[in-house]
Amino acid sequence: MRSVAQRDGVRAIHEASPGAVPPAADRGAGGERRCGWCRRVLPQQGSVGRPRQYCGQACRQRAYEQRAATTRAGLSGDVVLVTRAELDGLQDRLYQLRCAIEDVQTLLGERHTKAELERSLHDLVRATGRLDRLWVSERAAG
Fold first, then answer.
1. Cβ atoms of 79 and 70 closer than 8 Å
2. pTM, whole model, 2 decimals?
3. Domain count, the chain
């Protein structure tokens, strides 16, 4: 379920998913732990103690400030704030990706040369860009 709220020119997108994993426990493609604020890969640590959530005190402080601002604004902890420009940019990239996939699908349904298929697949990869590396960067609201 998704709900969207507009507040002070910033959109808040609320994703409600049962059993959602908190952002601090997110893992990258290789299963590495990432900082709950800046999304950098956290160094491996021994088996003793609680796993790190942040790469340093500055990230821990920014996360605290963001949680406090979210609470003051009356938003839940799993709300993602996105500016209109960021949302528009993401939607544009996803539209380009969908068009590139449709182009490849059309070419596969027809008889085309290997070079044409390779060019379309190259365009598809280019349209994907760095979407696989897209991380939501947390910032304090307000």
1. yes
2. 0.48
3. 1
